[in-house]
Amino acid sequence: MADDDPIWEDAPDSPSSSSFFDRDRHIRFLEMMYQLLPSPYQSQEINRLTLAYFVVAGLDILYALDRIDKEAVIHWVLSLQAHPKNEVELNNGQFYGFHGSRSSQYHLTDDRVHEQVAIPNGSHLASTYCALAILKTVGYDLSLVDFKSLSRSMRNLQQPDGSFMPIHIGAETDLRFVFCAAAICSMLKNWSGMDREKAKDYIISCQSYDGGFGLIPGSESHGGATYCAVASLRLMGFIDKDILSKNASSCTINVPLLLYWSLQRQAQDGGFQGRTNKPADTCYAFWVGGVLRILGADKFIDEGGLRGFLLTCQSEYGGFSKFPGSLPDLYHSYYGFCAFSLLKERDLNALCVELGITAIAAIGL
Amino acid sequence: MEVGLLGGGGDGLFHIIYFRLRGGGGGNNLEKVIYAKKLEKIILDEPTSGLDSTTAFRLVETLAVEKGKTVPSSQIVMDREAPDQRPPIPISKRTEWADVTPIPQDDGPNPVVAIAYTDEFRETMDYFRAVYLADERSPRALQLTTEAIHLNAGNYTVWQFRRLILDTLCVDLHEELDFVGLLARDNTKNYQIWHHRRWVAEKLGTNATSNELQFTEEIFSEDAKNYHAWSHRQWVLQALGGWEDELAYCDKLLQEDIFNNSAWNQRYFVVTKSPVLGGLEAMRDSEVAYAVKAILAKPENESPWRYLRGLYKDEVQSLVKDPRVASVCLDVLMNKRDYVHALNMVLDLLINGYQPSKTLENSIDALCLDSVLSDSGLAERVCSVLQVVDPIRANYWKWRKSGVTVEGPNGKELAG
């Protein structure tokens, strides 16, 4: 920007924007994030691809993808891909996906390139999901790149109980990574990377006595986990579109209980809570709202109430915060935008809920 | 008076107003963007963290000048940095690291969502890269991972390398527990910390059991619903044992807060999985009594209702046949308050073949509007009342009502 163009003369002198979805302000917010994230974000350095996903997919929802340099984004994302040097490396049990950032990716300097040194491979399932989501969002043709190593090596991450580890060197396993795996396979149109039946069994084992899903078997029902479960089942083809009209016993999960649990998450203040008896939080409007959309039950949501709550979390600086009155952050902002898309806010792109990107991006037009 | 907050804050929530330095020449390329607001007063919260002194000085100067447009510079208030936040000695100036060449991060020409790294962060990670690639598993490398973790507790590469070092150096893992414990308190929602804790506990084996249970209880005393801590506790019980007092612990938490759904979930976990209790069937009777008592204390509390339903998970007919279930619904309905969950439970019973008593019918009819009383079945009337008293879910109850009419009260569990 030119020096004689002080930003504050551009900003609308409006009062706190609590009565309408302030699309312009949100676009500006994402543009700032796209340019530079403030230092407190360095603690999320390892997940930079995820932060990029929030920005790029967010701008896509807001119909403002023209604000980014698509070529630069593609170039940067592809540079984070891990490639095995040869067939031997491909079969060494590691996962060849995408790194979340340079901080887990290492290059040998030129003078060492001839050494027989194994370059550490820290590629991560969630980063891989974000990478592919970004590429699809900016319209990159995924068939242009060889993803065979990715699909083949993804199997190394699936556990005997059907769950997924995010990295081959060892980490927690839970429903989040089952979702990442399913979404990756769906976007690549290639399911050789996972055993779907086993994954389904694991998901079923995560359904709690109250109908929601926990992150691991035995855990408390949680909005985010429930989204991962239901979205995965939809992606893998285990949930039909008109599931509500079908006989409950024909389903692999207890749908009526799930439906009731999900609807019960809408609290008196209109927002969605992540767990029973917890305060409402912006992001669950997507996690749980998304579940209801997949089930075809979003018609049962009190949309006016939800909208009202979300607007109290809308920041005058752009973006959304977790609770009313807090400062906004990128994560809650992105899911706030998603929530408004689900509410069919005008001038926003529709979502492909189970993939976590816009419908247009999912189709690949 | 409007106040804008600039910079600072390291708890993951970022303050989104940031600032651009105007004026060319000198300094580094660091740019932060001032948000457009007419601010009357700006409080600079740790404004110079992450900036070298030249840039920091220029920042203040710039703000004073720019602010002259809207606010007199005298209105700029600088927070004094807390003493323990003085930056540590740069690694490049520490003699024990003199032999190591740091490896800078190659971000490439067009990094997306670039982060404004502080000098400290950048340097620490540059040195980490060096020891990581050299696979140096030394005490100084261990210390370096400590510093790197403090800056970026989510970096699993650092954690993984730390584990390799701990193994190689045969470090006393009890000290490691202390380290992780302190970290976990400051970063309660970080997955890597908890994973590391589990790794340590696994190595220590059953010696660690009571310590681990104790640790999660300390976390719960500040946040009784911490999801990670609950997962950890469940893992400890299943991997290391310690079930004996678990049901009592759940009860203790529920006495403190009967609305704590995490504690209810844990109770279910114990009842179904504990090797010392006999399983769900054996425990069902006493647990139904427990749930009923909690319901009567606070009928508006969703947790014990779901728990009660869960005790009969796949045996709906047993739920229907247990007189205490209908009985607690009736008790709540007779009080004519906080009966939404009771009505839902009655609906569940009815569509699964429960034959209501006249008393129950009357208690529901007492809640109905006159127009509703003409609805043919009791189940429909329940739905009609729910449409009114649970307006957020009015459309859902309307749909349930139509489902009841179509399938009939003795039909398959259409939407139960």
From TrEMBL, chain A:
CDD domains: GGTase-I (cd02895). Its cofactor is Mg(2+); Zn(2+). It comes from the Eukaryota. Its EC number is 2.5.1.59. InterPro entries: GGTase_I_beta (IPR041960), PGGT1B-like (IPR045089), Prenyltrans (IPR001330), Terpenoid_cyclase/PrenylTrfase (IPR008930). It holds the Pfam family Prenyltrans. One of its GO terms (molecular function) is metal ion binding. This is Geranylgeranyl transferase type-1 subunit beta. The lineage of its organism: Eukaryota, Viridiplantae, Streptophyta, Embryophyta, Tracheophyta.
TrEMBL record, chain B:
Essential subunit of both the farnesyltransferase and the geranylgeranyltransferase complex. Contributes to the transfer of a farnesyl or geranylgeranyl moiety from farnesyl or geranylgeranyl diphosphate to a cysteine at the fourth position from the C-terminus of several proteins having the C-terminal sequence Cys-aliphatic-aliphatic-X. PROSITE patterns: PFTA. GO terms for molecular function: CAAX-protein geranylgeranyltransferase activity; protein farnesyltransferase activity. Its EC number is 2.5.1.58, 2.5.1.59. InterPro entries: Prenyl_trans_a. This is Protein farnesyltransferase/geranylgeranyltransferase type-1 subunit alpha. Its cofactor is Mg(2+). Keywords: Magnesium, Prenyltransferase, Repeat, Transferase. It catalyses: geranylgeranyl diphosphate + L-cysteinyl-[protein] = S-geranylgeranyl-L-cysteinyl-[protein] + diphosphate; L-cysteinyl-[protein] + (2E,6E)-farnesyl diphosphate = S-(2E,6E)-farnesyl-L-cysteinyl-[protein] + diphosphate. It comes from Forsythia ovata. Belongs to the protein prenyltransferase subunit alpha family. The keyword Nucleus does not apply. It is an enzyme of class 2 (transferase). Coiled coil: none annotated. SUPFAM superfamilies: Protein prenylyltransferase. It holds the Pfam family PPTA. Gene3D superfamilies: Protein prenylyltransferase.
